[in-house]
């Protein structure tokens, strides 16, 4: 009996649900590690996926476990382990679909090029910058549980990028109001990935990016004391120090993505 995976559960929820479940499926897919069937062994950072011609589209195959890949092929084959977001980025503008867990799991599905393009655009969208001065903070109100869960999961998966984050209602000096997520202990290099993670949490929760503002505060910032009294706090894990050096597989280094042949 095969073990149910996170993608199995997300796919089943999508099939039974609506827009919220569909977005959650794409969020799960983006973060999942998938094994892609290759034509030949990887050469450095260059990959040669096995390409299949279906009746109405061209696709490559990926599975969310090595066991499912083996069950599909029935023999040892070359493969590469890549995240869903990396695969979507590699296939962008290629006109190639992604066949997921084909014939081996209840989560089997084919994601057309348009869906992969939407996912890549969503994941690469940069937040807008704005200038406003907060003048008052209050307890958060009316935020959906889906967003809070998404924030908790995404921030929990980014160890060492900040120490904590504070979520509160905010009033600005122009009398506008909203919600603010303020990070403390974040180095400047971490600002962009943290803001991007918040944007993804909003998108995959079905909310507009303008529903939540993001800012970064220094340890001595006076706003931290006011936030600590009323805000919901997210503690971000300390970084885990590796015991041994590891060689990165193709696609695991965001600064050096693999290339398709």
Short structural summary:
The protein is an alpha+beta fold and 261 residues long.
Question: What features would you highlight for this structure?
Answer:
261 residues, alpha+beta, Trna Endonuclease, Chain: A, domain 1, Alpha-Beta Plaits, five-stranded mixed beta sheet, 13 strands, elongated
Q: Could you characterize what this model shows?
A:
The chain has 261 residues and is an alpha+beta fold. It folds into two domains: 6-124, Uncharacterised protein PF11572, DUF3234 (Trna Endonuclease, Chain: A, domain 1), CATH 3.40.1350; 134-235, Alpha-Beta Plaits, CATH 3.30.70. The chain is built from eight helices and 13 strands. It has helices at 6-16, 19-31, 66-73, 84-91, 113-124, 145-156, 188-204, 223-230; strands at 33-37, 46-47, 51-53, 58-63, 79-83, 96-100, 109-111, 134-138, 164-172, 177-184, 213-217, 232-235, 259-260. Helix 1 packs antiparallel against helix 2 (19-31) and helix 2 (19-31) runs antiparallel to helix 7. The protein is elongated, with a radius of gyration of 21 Å. The model has no long low-confidence stretch (mean pLDDT 88).
